[in-house]
Amino acid sequence: MADQAIATRKAPLAGRRGGSPAAILTPAEPASRVSLRAGADAVPALSAALGVTIPVRPKTSASTGRRHVLWLGPDEWLVIDEDGADLMAAAASSGTVHAAVDVSHRNTAVIVSGPGAEAAINSGCPQDLSLSIFPVGACSRTIFGKAEIVLFRTAEDTFRVECWRSFSPFVFGLLAEGAEDAGH
Fold first, then answer.
1. Are strands 99-102 and 32-37 parallel, antiparallel or unpaired?
2. Would you say 104 and 155 are in contact if contact means Cβ atoms under 8 Å apart?
3. N or C: which end of the chain has fewer CB within 10 A?
4. What DSSP designation does 11 have?
């Protein structure tokens, strides 16, 4: 059998850096991601299989180590594993009815950190990101400019901005502009 060529997927934001001292932009390392849909009765089994308690309240997340489950809707979550674990196999081992789609290559993320992180994101996102309204661990599906994003606050001054890889140059560019403005 002939050797088959295997395509190497380049990270969409490879080599990009940006921001300002007030808001630093860093492309996130590759991660595995699953879009998960399930009824309330499946949540306990899926939580056990994934090793993290799936949140059931709006705007909340749960994390165990570098695995995060973000609430996106009453029966919808984005599961992110920063170590690249096989989330599909974990979900399949739950023995319960659910829908899981691997979106690892569809999505990418930008980490926005620093004292001006909120201002940089608010340059294109209308959501109130103050700590009292959007505390550490909060997440939401929202818009940034014209792109849909999933926003996840990982620390007081740090956010993970998940977006489709095809929109990532636009999102990164707009974040860079917002970060420059946050530095003034």
1. antiparallel
2. no
3. N
4. P
